[in-house]
Fold each of these.
Amino acid sequence: MDFDSILTGLAATSAVTAIIGAGAIKASPGFARWATNKVATFFR
């Protein structure tokens, strides 16, 4: 069996997951502030 393509696919998947995770962490504070403001204005 040739595991090279499987390992390459796993490495690419891990890289994409890491990039998406880093973007989510970077966007979280701004999104949390926006969501808090939306909830606060809803209850006013």
Amino acid sequence: MVEIVTHIKQNPNSTKRVLGLSNEQLNMLIDKAKKSEKKRKEEIAKTEIRLIKPGGGRK
């Protein structure tokens, strides 16, 4: 997977040939995936039961 990402970053014009998406579509897809992952992690953090509250560790 890393090889594909480095190839696309080095050759943004070949994105259509490799993935079937334009470079702009790929960037939009990556941005949406990052936002979705951040939202999912926030939801997990809300329901997580912690013994020590965040920031309440050793000082």
